[in-house]
Each structure stands twice: as structure tokens, then as C-alpha cells.
Specification:
With 149 residues, the chain is an all-alpha fold. It has 6 helices and no strands. The protein has helices at residues 12-16, 19-48, 54-79, 86-104, 110-129, 131-136. The longest helix has 30 residues, at 19-48. The protein is elongated and about 70 Å long. It starts with 11 loop residues before the first helix and ends in a 13-residue tail after the last helix. The model is unreliable at 6-13 (pLDDT under 50).
Length: 149
């Protein structure tokens, strides 16, 4: 028998992480996985020669996989309550809005995809721009200096 006991309480970072931060990490992880899956799909289809321009499909596929890493890294940083993760999370949401707009102006099945992306991006923006998120991540706002009278 082992003399070591496993703690029954969660780690401090898990116990203290607000739901808002967990939700924001989930939004970023969802976007990162979607980008990576789309990139892998394009890479496979390009390599199999199933698309018109295989070179373009492979280039876009590699780009999407690389872009998918940004929100995934941000999600991991958010789960660990790292202050640096707010920047990549914010950039991811801002970049998603023009993509959603483009999809909304398309036809067919791309319109519902644009709606979902817009909802996810706006949700992410609300969560990342929430002042409580800034405080939870330990980002301090310097008070404005008042001029001496």
C-alpha cells in the first residue's frame, strides 16, 4: 500500500477560476478546434487531389492549422488564469467578426454557419471585454493621475 494520499480537493487554480473565464476559454477552444479541423480537411482534400487547386488548398490548410493554434493557446492560458492570454483571445474574437459577416452575405448553408460564428464571436467579445475578466486575470489598470491644484 502507498503511504501517499491523493488530495480530494481540486487544485487552487481550478477552484478559484470564475465561470466567465472558463466559458471564454471554451469559446476560444471551440474556435481553435474549428480552424484546425477545417485546415486539416483542406490539407487532406488537397493531398488527395479532390479540389480544383491543390496548392491553394494546402496553403490555406496550413494557414488555418497555424491560426487554430492561437485560440487554443489562449484557451490554455485562460484556464491557467494567465494575464497574457487576454490579448490572443481578444484578437481571435475580432478576427472572427469579418469572417462571420462574409459568411452571412453568402448563400446556402454558409448563412447558418455565419450566424453561429457571429454569436460565438460576440459572446467571446462580451466575455473578454468584461471588466471582471480583466480583474480575474490579474491585469491592473493604472489610475489616472490627477493634476495638482
Amino acid at each position: 500500500m502507498s503511504t501517499q494520499q491523493t488530495p480530494s480537493t481540486p487544485s487552487p487554480s481550478t477552484a478559484e477560476r470564475p465561470t466567465r473565464i472558463t466559458a471564454l476559454a471554451g469559446v476560444n477552444a471551440l474556435e481553435g478546434v474549428a480552424l484546425a479541423v477545417g485546415g486539416i480537411y483542406l490539407l487532406v482534400m488537397g493531398l488527395l487531389g479532390k479540389l480544383e487547386s491543390t496548392q491553394q488548398a494546402e496553403t490555406v490548410g496550413i494557414t488555418l492549422v497555424a491560426l487554430g493554434a492561437i485560440p487554443l493557446i489562449a484557451a490554455r492560458g485562460l484556464l491557467l488564469l494567465r494575464s497574457w492570454s487576454r490579448g490572443p483571445a481578444l484578437i481571435t474574437q475580432i478576427m472572427a467578426l469579418p469572417v462571420a459577416w462574409t459568411l452571412l452575405r453568402s448563400q446556402g448553408a454558409l448563412i447558418p454557419t455565419g450566424i453561429v460564428l457571429a454569436v460565438v464571436a460576440v459572446t467571446g467579445l462580451v466575455l473578454v471585454l468584461n471588466p471582471a475578466t480583466t480583474q480575474d486575470l490579474g491585469i491592473r489598470r493604472e489610475p489616472k493621475a490627477t493634476p495638482d491644484a
